[in-house]
Amino acid sequence: MTKPENYHTPTLAPIALFVYNRPVHTARTIEALMKNELAAESELFIFSDGSKSEHDLTDVDHVRSIIRNVKGFKKVVITERRENMGLANSIIDGVTQLCSKYKRVIVLEDDLVVSKHFLSYMNTALDRYEDDAQVMQISGYMFPVEIKTKFDAVFLPFITSWGWATWQRAWAHFDPDMSGYEKLSNNPALRRKFDLDEAYPYFNMLEAQRDGKIDSWAIRWYLSVFIKKGLTLFPVRTLVDNIGFDGSGTHCGNRTVHVQEIFDFKVVKFPKQVKEMNNEKKHIFKYLYFIDRKMNFLNSFLFELKNCIWG
Fold it and tell me: Can you give the residue range of the structural domain that contains 268?
């Protein structure tokens, strides 16, 4: 059951920040997070992954020199991993730890710049929908689409990896082994729904994960939420900007992607009912369809160009 809007709990969710070898990005992420008025009351847990090779040692050390001097939060706890776990394993381990102890968590990676209202929105939403089993994630990101609704946030049937939060009750359903894969594999209608009515090839990502071609916690989390018919709350305007599309990220590649400007926007009006918002999701499905087709065309063009140049 959704709690009333005036409900408040004095316990703020811990923030998990996952960093690796990008000192400039990490500094910008922390700087933006510190501008939130709830930062001083929040506990920040930073997980620093170990280097993959000697090539990364300098940048990893630089990042660690930055995070060791972070101030402006109620408490800063740093985990410096000796070995390289990889982003997926690091996030799974960190989120599991914090959910187990605090029953909720806010999650960021080292290439996300957040709005000054990010923490307020996240904590309010975590409080408000804590007891609604269907709500399995809170998203801070929204795609660059115009959504006309009387609310400042909407419920959608898929997850995000760009600034999010969840509860232990939801994360307990995370299935890293993808046991729900066969259910989708044998059901074309279910695969279509998983792909957001063929707007985006998420099932292809699931197969790539199964075949060891990618290592993504997010596609496995999406499958876990999908199997449970879960929903994610998205703000109608983004509170997160991804600055990692410069070739430095794990899955970003070297490409330019338009990201909606972060406005001075604050989520005030939350949905009164927990239900999938069909009219709003159509705009996002259309955007994802366009992005997927545009990237496929660009990749094909670059492949043909490369063949023309190199023979």
Answer: 15-173+228-310
What is the pTM (predicted TM-score) of this model? 0.88
User: Domain containing 73 — which CATH number?
Assistant: 3.90.550.10
Is residue 79 assigned to a domain?
Answer: yes
- What does the alpha-carbon distance between residue 118 and residue 265 come to, in Å, rounded to a whole number? 10
Q: What is the DSSP string of 16-66?
A: EEEE-S-HHHHHHHHHHHHTSTTGGGSEEEEEEPPPSSHHHHHHHHHHHHH
φ, ψ at 201 (rounded to 5°): -80, 65
Both tokens of 77, joined, read 């706890």
Helix 217-227 crosses helix 202-210 at what angle (to 10 degrees)?
120
pLDDT mean across residues, the chain? 87
Number of domains composing the chain = 1
Q: Tell me how crowded residue 198 is: count the other CB atoms within 10 A of its CB.
A: 14
